[in-house]
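Our collaborator T.R. sent over the components below with a one-line note: 'Predict the complex.' Nothing else. No constraints on interfaces, no templates requested, no preferences about which chain binds where. So this is a plain run: every listed entity goes in together, and whatever single assembly comes back becomes the starting point for the next discussion.
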Amino acid sequence: MKYQTFLIKYAEIAVKGKNRYIFEDALIHRMRQVLRNVDGEFAVSKTQGRVYVDCKSDYDYDEVIAALQTVFGINAICPVVKIENEGFEKLTEAVLRYVDDEYPDKNRTFKVFARRADKSFPVRSTQMNEELGASILDAFPEMKVDVHKPEIELYVEVRENIYIYSKQIPGPGGMPLGTGGKAMLLLSGGIDSPVAGYMVSKRGVKIDAVYFHAPPYTSERAKQKVVDLARKISKYTGTICLHVINFTDIQLAIYEKCPHEQLTIIMRRYMMRIAEKIAVDNDCLALVTGESIGQVASQTMQSLAVTNEVCTLPVFRPLIGFDKQEIIDVSEKIDTFETSILPYEDCCTIFVAKHPVTKPELKAIKKSEEKLRDCIDDLLAKAFETDEVINVI
Ligand code: ATP
Ligand code: MG
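Returned assembly:
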C-alpha cells in the first residue's frame, strides 16, 4: 500500500463562514457513502479544517479515486505518504524516498511547499523549503528548482504526522450533495436531461425525477432506458426517486382535439403541470429540464416562454446556453451518452407534427387547451394515479 492517506481539497466550501461545518459534514457523509461500495476499510475524518481518507486495509487505488471523483464538493484528491513526526532528519529521508519513488525520470523542475502547522516542530517553514530543496538537488542532480512554474509542486505538511504529496487528481468540483435542497428533474431518454440533472446536482441539489411514458406507443425498453440513465447519474446524485407517469391518454386527447402544429407545446405544458404537482408534493423547490435555446421547435424563446407560463416553481435549465456538442461532451464524461443514443422511441417523437409552431402565441395555445376542458381534469387525476415510484440507487 503506497499511500496510506488521501488528502481531500475542496474549494468553495472554504468560503462559507460559520456554516462551513454543514458543508464539510455533508461532504464527509457522501464520501463515506461512496467508499462503502469500494473493497477495503476506510476512515474519513476532518482535522484542522482538512478532510482525510485513511486507508485501514489493502485497497485498489483506481477504485478509490474513481469513487471519490463522483463526490461533488471535492476539488482535488491528493494521494499522500504519511509518516510519523520523528524530527527533520527522518522527514528529509522520507522526502527523498518519496521523490525517488514518485518520479523515476528526474529531469524535472520542482518547488518545495513546506508548512509547519505543528509549531513545536523545530524547523520553520522557510528553512524547511530551503533545506529540503538543497537535499533534493544534492541527491538528484538532474532536478532543478523553478520557483515560478515548477513541474512538481512538492508539499510537506508537518502536523501530528507528516504528510508528503505532490499529485492533485481533479475531483468533480461543485457543492456537497444535499446542501442545496431538492429539485424535480424531467428525465427523458434523451441526451440532454441526464446532463441537466447532473449539473444541478453538482451544485449540491438532491434530485428526484419524473418520466412520462406512453404505452403502448412507447415500450418497456424505453422506460428501462430511463431507469438505466437515472442509475448512471445516481452515481453522482445519490439515490433518485423516479416517478413514472402514464401520459398516453392525455397525449391522445391532445392529439385528437388540438391543432397538430401545437401538439408538442401543449404536451410540454401538461408535462410541466404534472411535474410541478409531483414536485410540490415531494418538497422539491424547482423543476429541472434539459432544454437549450433553439435546439428544436419547442425550445425557441417563444416556446420556452409559453411552456414556462404554467409553472409557479422556478424552472432551471442548466443547458440553456450549451451547444449540442458541449452537452455530448458532458454526457460522455458522466457515461450517459451510450445509453442515451439507444434507439428506443420517446413519447415526444411519436406524436410530433410535421410542421410544429416555432413561435407559439400564448393566447392561441390557451384557446386550443380550452378544447380539452371536458376531459382534462379527469385525465390528469388518472395520470397521477398511475404514478409508479422507483427508487434508483
Ligand atoms: P432530451 O435529450 O433531454 O430528451 P430533447 O432535446 O429530446 O431533450 P425535448 O424532447 O424537447 O428535448 O424535451 C425537452 C425537455 O423536456 C427534456 O430535456 C426533458 O427535461 C423534458 N422531457 C421531454 N420528454 C420527456 C419525457 N418523456 N419524460 C420526462 N421529461 C421529458
Ligand atoms: Mg427528448
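Summary for T.R.: The radius of gyration is 27 Å.
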